[in-house]
Write a structure and sequence with these properties.
The complex is a heterotrimer of chains A (535), B (361) and C (306). Chain A is of the alpha/beta class. Chain A contains 18 helices and 23 strands. In chain A, the strands form five sheets. In chain A, strands 13, 16, 19, 20, 21, 22 and 23 form a seven-stranded mixed beta sheet that branches. In chain A, a hairpin with a 2-residue loop joins strand 4 (71-76) and strand 5. Chain A is globular, with a radius of gyration of 24 Å. The model of chain A is unreliable at 1-6 and 514-535 (pLDDT under 50). Chain B is mainly alpha-helical and 361 residues long. The longest helix of chain B is centred in the middle third of the chain and has 29 residues, at 114-142. Chain B is globular. In chain B, the strands form two sheets. Chain B has a two-stranded antiparallel ribbon with strand order 1-4. A two-stranded antiparallel ribbon of chain B has the order 2-3. Mean pLDDT of chain B is 91; it is low at 353-361. Chain B is built from 14 helices and four strands. In chain B, 54% of the residues are buried. Chain B has helices spanning 13-37, 42-50, 57-82, 90-107, 114-142, 146-166, 200-217, 219-229, 231-236, 241-268, 279-289, 294-318, 323-344, 357-360, and strands at residues 2-7, 191-193, 197-198, 345-350. Chain C is mainly alpha-helical and 306 residues long. Helices cover 73% and strands 0% of the residues of chain C. Chain C is globular, with a radius of gyration of 19 Å. The termini of chain C are far apart. Classes of the chains: A alpha/beta (535), B mainly alpha (361), C mainly alpha (306). At the B-C interface, strand 1, helix 5, helix 6, helix 11 and helix 13 of B face helix 3, helix 4, helix 10 and helix 12 of C.
Chain lengths: 535, 361, 306
């Protein structure tokens, strides 16, 4: 790869492409955006920084026409404009790559792109155009592939190519690297540089400070709906940027030293293989893993590499072929269902909150019953439900995990994502389980709730439980996991101490180079890291 | 400016009760307008339809007799629909129950008494269950869409009933009518009140209370609700979707079979080519109108039985087609479904233009 | 005309109403809407077609009125299921009950009336070809229309932008909305098309196939059409094969009844329904095969968050 990323970047001195002037957006009485000013110049990569809930997505939706501002003005090349819809934004020259892709699984790449472009009706000609653009910008794609068959990185390329075909002058990217390996991210940065070299501006939304420092010319920082600072990110340290983003209140997790490796194994997986349950899923291939009392093991990986399938196999929602494949506290559990595994002391928190971890249209107390009906809480007597104990339990969980709710016992679906996640994690930790398997514990959760959840996981582990965290968030893994393994296309690497690895090494494993143990070690280039945990 | 549907922050409790009432009023209003347009005095027609049946003791009795099978079936269906199992073939399960139960008095005409009656009832329930188990197994084992299979099996059951009533089980002394031998009193449900109210009304009341207890208070009811609302969360809770599919099919099939045998052992008194004027389908409407709640179903079942009675009255008094009743019932279900959406959503007027591609393109 | 030719000819006639109803439902399902009210829409189409023909004496008017009737019925479904986001299963059942009742009400005065036959379209020379001549070129105009409609639907779904949008809406309504397509409007139009086709199928029954009006004359064909869509795994071409198969079963059982092969007629009459169940089981057991073409949003309600 050529060194396309320049060491020093200066903001172009041209006139403004887009100006947002005093943009305010009200949701009821809540000010999501409060008099925000933003100026983007042609040819610059402009970072929009902020915590979850700082107002980034609201601002971006206003620029892309999916929301209308309550007050304020948008100027495009100096002229005041109204952007009533996304298609109007596209006509103006604004393209957007979403964090959660708006693609159609059953359709081909060409068909997907044709849907966004009203003027391309000749699909054969469009396919040639796609190949051309993807070559030019280093985004290899086969126009005839169906989306279901593509990796997450390839899907993002489809989104980008779709934008590029409309010759955008402003490209908005929402957390584009959150789904990429570090290496894929580097490829993306090369593409962005080629774009800006032609005068296209990029509005780059991220909370990854290192990469913002690396590629952005300018940064606007939001907090609680207001612009708190504008700066040249290369002039600031990551710590300075972080304190601007978060404000004074930076929460530090307290994790004392990891436990000695002589603690007994509480969760053991040995040679777990499973075929894919449906054509769009991933098969698990010979997965082995052990989690000891007192430690947190993290499983890193890009979404869609078998995390969901592994979770189902561990929770017992899908049964393994043999008894001894999964062992909980020394007892074989591979053929036992989720209720039997809970009785053995295990607890589980799935990735999806609504409709998997909780039933949105049932009350919190009913949702307590969902996973606690057979765990010795006396909620059921000869088949009859004891509603008052259920409510008491829900109250206790709500209190100890700071679940903010609008009523005494509201429906689960009425809680915000962070509060519902605190409730679901709390429901399981409240049991003091000996083994906890949790998937994406803080996905889409605000910083405050994330800190509460991560601290509670550490506390649970240190009290003698074994905790397995499946997460796409590398920062989270580095923050709380004692050992880390990487899942890629259904293969799992051997867990190694988190401190012995760098982000780049994990990135290589996430990209699939860790498949097959020998190959994995060679690719990591430092054998001792892989051996370090062996007694 | 346009009107859009918007999700309520929390579901409206009051709409849960208001929605069925609103649906009934809207249906009455629609009928009022239709009668008016058709040149029929709407006040008189609605009076004949919905009030007159309640003015005489015999017709109130008749109303209860009609309500029993409808409510029995609807109670069973409410279990299915709560767990998102779309059994719409209760009409066939009813016929299966009638056939199975009637086998005893037809094959052994001399047997009589409480033991025979009990046996007939049990056979009826078993027949309905067995027939409902077919689509249940096809769904569990082969993933076959139960809406289509249950409906197809209605045709099969009715044809089989037709064959039995005309063929092997026809009364040799019956002047070639396609009927079985009329049953003796010792082979029918005892009359417990008035002239025609039989023991089946007790079965119906017991079913309502037991169903209420099961859904509201027991773990089984909880499992049904969870699996119906989100199957994924249900399996995470450790509940088996397949077992629940089978259970709800057996409950609804059993109750439909019970309704079938009670018709044969009661108002009809013999087996004939058809034993139900579409109770199995009416019960679908009753289940939704009663918001899948047993007490709601009780009220809704009485109302729909009233519409059957009124339909018969209107046919005689003002020459309305008997199909009018079915139109009323279908329309009522439309209104119920539309009104139910106001439990979770509300209307909001938006003043900005529609945001879609077509207007900009 | 030989006996064999006659049978084959009637199979095509029996398949035609199924094909009409199924092709309309296929379009609705491709857009993500499961309309279980096909039976009701067919019944309304049948009665509208017969009544309008009887009143005006013109079969063409009857056909038009049948299509409009089917569309109105579908519109009712669309309003309740799409605008009021009611459960599609329940709404479809409501439409069937309502449609069967309404058709009985409208058709009351037409029971027993003789129908006006629709002329057959003979193509000179071609029709006189041996065997295939009458089979392929001697059908009534509806048969050609049904085939044209099937080809047209295939072309629309897979070769036009409108079809692409429709499939996109059925595959992922959230993304389609995000791209600026009107999910509800697309679905409503697809449902209306379904109603139009079901109306045509119904008109075929009361104007050509029988031809007269009797209550409940659709006899479950709407439901069989629904099963056909699954059987064809949402591909128009396979619908033709499926419709001929089901048409074949119902005609053969009729012939068997006429000949009298010692099996009670009721058992022979059960055959189409039993075959439907068996076909459903065979096609559904292979979940992988089925999931490839199943519209991902089939039966799921959509409410845009504004």
């Amino acid at each position: 790869m050529e060194p396309a990323i320049a060491a020093r970047r200066t903001r172009p001195q041209s006139g403004a492409l887009v100006e947002a002037i005093a943009i305010t957006k009200l949701f009821g009485s809540f000010k999501a955006n409060d008099a925000i000013d933003l100026t983007i110049r042609p040819g610059e990569i402009h970072a929009l920084l902020g915590e979850n809930g700082a107002g980034k997505s609201t601002l971006v939706k206003i620029l892309y026409g999916s929301l209308q501002p309550s007050a304020g003005e948008i100027r495009w090349k100096g002229q005041p404009v109204r952007i009533p819809s996304p298609s109007a934004a596209r006509k103006l020259g604004i393209g957007m790559v979403f964090q959660h892709f708006s693609l159609f699984d059953a359709l081909t790449v060409t068909e997907n792109i044709a849907l966004a472009l009203a003027d391309r009706n000749n699909l054969a000609a469009l396919a040639r155009e796609i190949e051309e653009v993807s070559r030019e910008f280093g985004l290899p794609l086969n126009p005839a592939s169906r989306i279901v068959d593509l990796s997450v990185g390839e899907r993002q390329r489809v989104e980008i190519v779709r934008c590029l075909l409309q010759d955008p002058e402003l490209l908005i990217m929402d957390e584009p690297t959150s789904v990429l390996t570090p290496q894929e991210a580097d490829d993306l940065f090369v593409t962005l540089d080629r774009l800006t070299a032609r005068g296209c501006a990029v509005l780059y939304i991220s909370h990854r400070l290192e990469e913002v420092k690396q590629i952005c010319h300018h940064a606007t920082i939001l907090r609680l709906g207001k612009v708190v600072a504008e700066c040249d990110p290369q002039q600031e340290t990551a710590a300075q940027l972080a304190s601007l983003m978060v404000g004074a209140d930076v929460h530090v997790l307290s994790a004392d030293t990891p436990p000695p490796s002589t603690m007994r194994t509480r969760l053991k997986v040995q040679g777990l293989s499973m075929p894919e349950p449906h054509p769009f899923a991933v098969a698990l291939k010979d997965i082995s893993l052990d989690v000891r009392a007192g430690e947190i093991v993290g499983i890193a990986g890009i979404a869609g590499n078998g995390q969901g399938e592994l979770f189902d196999a561990l929770s017992g929602e899908r049964l393994a072929a043999r008894e001894d494949v999964v062992t909980i506290d020394g007892k074989p559990a591979g053929r036992l269902g989720v209720t039997r595994r809970r009785r053995m002391g295990a607890a589980f928190v799935p990735e999806e909150r609504n409709g998997h971890g909780a039933v949105p249209r049932l009350r919190l107390s009913d949702n307590v019953l969902l996973t606690r009906h057979a765990t010795g809480d006396q909620l059921i007597r000869i088949g009859v439900i004891d509603f008052s104990s259920m409510r008491t339990l829900a109250e206790r969980i709500g209190r100890s995990f700071d679940v903010r709710k609008s009523a005494v016992d509201p429906e689960a679906g009425s809680l915000s994502g962070g509060n519902l996640q605190k409730f679901i994690v709390g429901r399981e930790i409240d049991r003091q389980p000996s083994v906890l398997v949790v998937s994406q514990p803080t996905w889409g959760v605000d910083a405050g709730a994330a800190a509460v959840i991560r601290q509670s996981l550490i506390d649970l582990a240190r009290s003698g439980s074994a905790v397995l965290v499946i997460s796409q968030d590398l920062d989270e893994i580095f923050e709380i996991a004692d050992r880390v393994a990487v899942i890629s296309r259904g293969h799992l690497t051997e867990p190694v101490p988190t401190r012995s690895l760098t982000r780049e090494e994990i990135g290589l494993m996430m990209a699939g180079l860790g498949e097959g143990k020998k190959k994995g070690r060679a690719a990591m280039g430092q054998g001792e890291a892989a051996h370090a945990h062996r007694p | 400016m346009r009107i859009v549907l918007e999700k309520r922050p929390t579901p409206s409790r009051s709409m849960q009760y208001l929605s069925p009432v609103a649906a009934i009023l809207l249906s009455l209003l629609t009928f009022f307008v239709i009668f008016l347009l058709a040149g029929i005095d709407p006040v008189r027609a609605l009076y004949i339809y919905f009030v007159e049946p309640l003015t005489a003791l015999w017709s109130i009795e008749d109303l209860l007799v009609k309500a029993v099978p409808i409510i029995l079936i609807a109670i069973g269906l409410s279990f299915c629909y709560q767990s998102a199992v779309w059994n719409i073939g209760a009409e066939g399960q009813l016929a299966a129950g009638a056939l199975a139960g009637a086998a005893i008095p037809i094959l052994f005409p001399t047997l009589q008494g409480p033991a025979v009656i009990t046996a007939m009832i049990l056979m009826g329930i078993a027949g309905g269950m067995a027939y409902a188990a077919i689509p249940a197994i096809l769904k569990i084992r082969f993933n076959a869409n139960e809406t289509l299979t249950t409906l197809m099996l209605v045709y099969v059951a009715n044809l089989f009933l037709d064959y039995m009533a005309r063929g092997p089980w026809r009364d040799p002394a019956g002047f070639n009518f396609p009927n079985s031998r009329p049953f003796d009193e010792g082979q029918m449900l005892p009359v417990i009140a008035g002239e025609s109210i039989r023991l089946s009304i007790v079965f119906m009341l017991v079913a309502v209370v037991v169903a209420w207890f099961m859904t509201a208070k027991t773990m089984t009811g909880f499992k049904i609700r969870v699996l119906g609302q989100s199957p994924r969360a249900g399996s995470f809770g450790g509940f088996s979707r397949n077992r629940m599919v089978m259970l709800t099919f057996l409950i609804s099939g059993g109750l439909a079979g019970l309704a079938g045998i009670c018709e044969v052992m009661g108002p009809i008194g013999l087996l004939r080519t058809s034993v139900s004027p579409g109770y199995g389908f009416t019960a679908i409407i009753v289940a939704f109108l009663g918001r899948l709640h047993p007490f709601g179903i009780l009220v809704a079942g009485l109302l729909l039985a009233l519409s059957y009675m009124g339909g018969e009255g209107a046919q005689v008094a003002i020459g309305l087609s008997d199909q009018t009743t079915q139109v009323f019932q279908g329309m009522l279900l439309f209104y119920v479904l539309a009104c139910d959406s106001f439990i979770y959503y509300r209307l909001r007027i938006v003043r900005q233009p529609a945001l879609d591609a077509a207007t900009v393109r | 005309m030989t006996m064999m030719e006659g049978i084959l000819l009637t199979i095509v006639t029996a398949a035609t109403p199924l094909l009409f109803a199924a092709i309309g439902e296929l379009v609705a399902e491709r857009a993500g809407v499961l309309n279980l009210g096909v039976e009701g829409m067919m019944a309304i189409g049948a009665v509208c077609g017969f009544a309008a023909t009887a009143v005006t004496g013109m079969p063409l008017v009857g056909v038009l009125v049948a299509m409009i009737g089917g569309m109105l019925a579908a519109g009712l479904f669309g309003i309740v299921a799409l605008f009021f986001v009611a459960n599609q299963n329940a709404t479809g059942v409501a439409l069937t009950l309502f449609g069967l009742g309404l058709s009985g009400l409208i058709g009351d005065r037409f029971v027993g009336m003789p129908g006006i036959p629709v002329p057959r379209v003979d193509i000179p020379v071609l029709t006189d070809l041996p065997i295939v001549g009458r089979l392929v070129f001697g059908q009534d105009p509806f048969v050609y229309l049904a085939i044209a409609l099937t080809i047209g639907t295939w072309w629309f779904l897979f070769k036009t932008r409108g079809g692409l949008v429709l499939r996109a809406v059925g595959d992922n309504h959230g993304s389609a909305h995000a791209l600026g397509f009107s999910v509800i409007r697309t679905r409503f139009l697809a449902v209306l098309f379904g109603g139009l086709c079901a109306g045509l199928g119904g008109a075929y029954l009361s104007l050509v196939y029988t031809p007269q009006w009797t209550p409940m004359m659709t006899a479950g064909r709407g439901w069989i059409a629904l099963a056909l869509v699954v059987f064809a795994s949402w591909l128009p071409g396979r619908l033709v094969i499926g419709a001929l198969l089901f048409g074949g079963v119902s005609i053969l059982q009729l012939h068997a009844q006429a000949i009298g092969i010692g099996i009670p007629s009721q058992f022979l009459s059960m055959l189409p329904y039993i075959v439907t169940v068996i076909a459903l089981v065979i096609i559904s057991r292979n979940r992988t095969l089925l999931s490839v073409n199943t519209p991902a949003c089939l039966g799921r309600a959509f409410v845009p968050d504004s």
